[in-house]
Amino acid sequence: MFTLSFTFLLLMIQGSTDPEPDRIPVPNFVAQVIDDGVSIGYGLAIGDVNGNGRPDILLADKDQIVWYRNGDWQRFVIAENLTEFDNVCIAARDITGDGQVEVAVGAQWNPGETSDLERSGSVHYLIRPEDPTQRWEVVTLSHEPTVHRMRWVRMTDGEYSLVVVPLHGRGNVGGEGAGVRNYAYIPPADDPRGAWEMILLDESLNMTHNFDVVPQKGMDGEKLYIGGRQGVVTVKPEAGHWLPDSSEKLPGIDRGIGEIRYGSLDSIDFLTTIEPMHGNEVAVYLLEDEPKRLLLDDSLHQGHALAAADLLGLGRDQIVAGWRNPDADVKVGIKMYVPLDESGTRWETYVIDNNTMATEDLLVADLDGDGRPEIIAAGRATGNLIIYWNRTGE
User: Fold this and answer.
1) What mean pLDDT value characterizes the chain?
2) Spatial CB neighbours of 118, under 8 Å, sequence gap ≥ 6
3) Are residues 282 and 299 in contact, defined by beta-carbon separation less than 8 angstroms?
4) How far apart are CA 146 and CA 137, in angstroms?
5) CA–CA dist 176, 171 (Å, integer)
6) How far apart are CA 235 and CA 227, in angstroms?
7) What is the separation of C-alpha 251 from the centre of its chain, rounded to a whole number of angstroms?
């Protein structure tokens, strides 16, 4: 393992030449490579695997589902060779209240096959052994073709479901055709090996790429923002449960969406996106009466990872974006976009990773409990998993 200090972090400024230095600290992140043998690094998750109260890192890699123990970052294999084709996504969350995450994964990643259920897509629930460093039991569930993203979501009755979002609708060719069937999987009450109820949430987008899970204001439960070829739809549970086909199109967003995350500027909420799918643009939509779009960056090449969180302690969220193919400067990496005030109309851009991370996925989480969230990223072409320790203010 080794560390790289990205303290240079120079910037390009959009909309202002005054960075308000008395209010905005310069981001300072120190990179630690915890795995330099990643095959692809399709999907990341964060959660306590071994019940010691510290968040661990989980990774859906090409052939293996693995976790890295917080502290020594030792790598353990949960499952491997689940299907003929690659693993592609992972969801981890404590849904039972026992202090340990439940894990689900998606595999059989064969996006060119949109009809054959045997050859494309799979969904698996993994049952933890007494010793989580050993192999976990695999329960295979029903699925759609081209399973691509999944998250555990809390419903209004406090129970959890697994939301699974494929890439294509059934039988689609070249991104054209039927709507993507996005399902919520309801775990059986007693034994996860039993039958899982499936509720169709939306099929209005004929391609989707990612979605975010957001707490509902003023009530229990969480809602979804799903980004796809025709824009963004929202889905929320009601009366303690999901209602079939309960999605609504978000007005004012008609571009193709690759990545999507929700954030807050205190008095104004926003969506941030990478456009189009695998695109070059990082945008912000201020959620006023109708979403107002601001373009933050158009220099990415294959933008493929996005987060919104307050890493600098400003009381308003910043945006972190990563891309996986060399850009015009022949570099890959990660950037941070910092709002200069609560209006969300002025942003400043910092380089966090300068050409060591071909970003396939990234997350933000406080791994050491100091109140300053870290960035965790996995790289495809660079074959690495890196923690960017937040040392802002030191």
Assistant:
1) 92
2) none
3) no
4) 23
5) 9
6) 12
7) 23
Phi and psi angles of residue 389, each rounded to the nearest 5 degrees, phi first: -70, 130
**Taking a C-beta distance cutoff of 8 angstroms, is the pair 46, 57 a contact?**
yes
CB contact at 8 A, 91 and 151: yes
CB 59 within 8 A of CB 382: no
The token duo for 288 is: 């006023």
- The rounded distance, in Å, linking the Cα atoms of 196 and 161 is 10
First to last CA, the chain: 22
C-alpha closest to that of 259 among 322, 214, 306, 309: 306
Residue in 132, 43, 121, 130 with CA at minimum distance from that of residue 79: 132
Residues 238-266: pLDDT tens digits?
866 788 777 899 998 989 999 999 999 98
**Sheet of 182-186, strand order:** 147-154, 160-166, 182-186, 197-202
The residue among 203, 255, 195, 199 whose CA lies nearest residue 230 is: 255
Q: Round to whole Å and give the CA distance between 255 and 258.
A: 10
110: tokens are 């064969």
